[in-house]
Design brief:
Strand content: 5-15%
Helix content: 25-40%
Radius of gyration: 24 Å
Structural class: mainly alpha
Number of strands: 2
Strand order of the largest sheet: 1-2
Distance between the termini: 47 Å
């Protein structure tokens, strides 16, 4: 097992030395260790088959929203925070990364930055009723 000294002594291996090693100086670190990429886009890969299938599913929902001029769905009960909703999927069998904003594709969350009356009015415009939400 390595000691704390051995770990911290080797932490900067491969980086150019500078004041950033003894004080907080992010700019100095970047200036000493940044190497611009001057190549072209040939290193980029195209979308995977899974990504294309998932995007096709999302596009169907977007087309529906464009046709109806209304959201597919929105949450009328749970204010949206970074942890408010469980894992959301478009198609769990195809996904490598989980991270929809709510628990379903194209489902809007309550974000009351404009005030709770604005959220209530938005719900009513689409024939929905805002549930009893605790915004504290």
């Amino acid at each position: 097992m390595k000691t704390t000294y051995e770990v911290s002594n080797n932490a900067w291996t491969g980086f150019a030395e500078g004041t950033w090693q003894s004080e907080v100086d992010v700019r100095a670190f970047i200036q000493k260790n940044y190497t611009p990429y001057e190549g072209d886009e040939s290193f980029l890969a195209g979308p995977s088959t899974s990504t294309l299938k998932l995007w096709d599913q999302v596009l169907l929902g977007i087309q529906e929203e464009n046709r109806t001029h209304a959201p597919i769905d929105f949450d009328t009960d749970l204010p949206s925070t970074i942890t408010s909703h469980g894992a959301g999927y478009i198609d769990q069998t195809l996904e490598k990364i989980v991270g929809l904003q709510t628990d379903a594709p194209l489902k809007r969350g309550i974000i009351a930055n404009g005030g709770i009356r604005m959220v209530k009015t938005s719900c009513e415009v689409y024939g929905r009723k805002l549930g009893p939400v605790d915004l504290c």
